Amino acid sequence: MDLGGATWRTAARSGNTDCVEVADNLPEVVLVRDSKDRDGGTLHVTPSSWRSFIALAKQAGPAA
Hints:
By secondary structure, this protein is of the alpha+beta class. The chain has one helix at 47-60; strands at 9-10, 20-23, 30-34, 43-45. Helices cover 22% and strands 22% of the residues.
């Protein structure tokens, strides 16, 4: 799978901490990485798993 076309963006809820980047523009995979350690590894998840994660995170609400 070619990941060269990944377009990274900082997660909206990261605020000023810039801790998570997401590339969700590829058809078969969503990529997630730590913005402070971009070479430290990347999570690869299916788009349906990512949508489920986001839905559950929204239900949980903001972190305390």
